[in-house]
């Protein structure tokens, strides 16, 4: 089931990216300091670089994934948009997943970055409810929480109950934060809305 959701998400991403004009490719995304082209380069990185290149890039970055990812996104954001779209479209069924994240992590990666692109461009971006709830469960769960209870994005659920107004989903206990599922996901992943 997860691989089906991932494939559908990658097809939707490739479709959205394939319709963007040059100005939209250069527009800021919700990822701080990254344009849409940077996010597209990041999304397609696992399909475009070899394992050896990944290891060398991690070594150059001192083992810091965020630094390595930014360096590759900066470099590869200059690739032709059609090449980035093709890398995504040609790999809708590739079973890549982030280290430690499994297939749910791969789905989260694609869904979150899809919103990083669509929201600031004001593009209607369809997301199936089961994909959203899977990702919300992952980012609000305790499995990847740090010692202070925050998730990898720095968001803390302590004292909050998140409740989707458009889906049957909620998590946590405490002060109610009710909003559409997409907005809750952006909140839980530390995105600042334009």
TrEMBL record:
Residues 7-91 form the Mycothiol-dependent maleylpyruvate isomerase metal-binding domain. InterPro entries: DinB/YfiT-like, Maleyloyr_isom, MDMPI_metal-binding. Gene3D superfamilies: dinb family like domain. It comes from the Bacteria. One of its GO terms (molecular function) is metal ion binding. Pfam families: MDMPI_N. NCBIfam families: maleylpyruvate isomerase family mycothiol-dependent enzyme. This is TIGR03083 family protein. It comes from Actinopolymorpha singaporensis.
């Amino acid at each position: 089931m997860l691989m089906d959701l991932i494939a559908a998400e990658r097809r939707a991403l490739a479709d959205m990216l394939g319709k963007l004009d040059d100005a939209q490719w250069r527009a800021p995304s919700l990822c701080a300091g990254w344009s849409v082209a940077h996010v597209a380069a990041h999304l397609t990185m696992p399909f475009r670089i070899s394992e050896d290149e990944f290891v060398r890039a991690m070594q150059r970055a001192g083992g810091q994934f965020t630094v390595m990812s930014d360096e590759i996104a900066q470099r590869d954001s200059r690739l032709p948009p059609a090449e980035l779209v093709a890398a995504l479209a040609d790999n809708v069924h590739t079973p890549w997943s982030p280290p430690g994240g499994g297939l749910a992590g791969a789905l989260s990666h694609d869904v979150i970055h899809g919103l990083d692109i669509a929201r600031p461009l004001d593009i209607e971006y369809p997301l199936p409810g089961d994909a959203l709830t899977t990702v919300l469960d992952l980012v609000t769960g305790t499995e990847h929480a740090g010692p202070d209870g925050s998730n990898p994005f720095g968001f803390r659920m302590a004292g909050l109950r998140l409740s989707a107004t458009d889906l049957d989903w909620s998590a946590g206990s405490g002060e109610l934060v009710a909003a559409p599922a997409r907005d809750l996901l952006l909140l839980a992943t530390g995105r600042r809305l334009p």
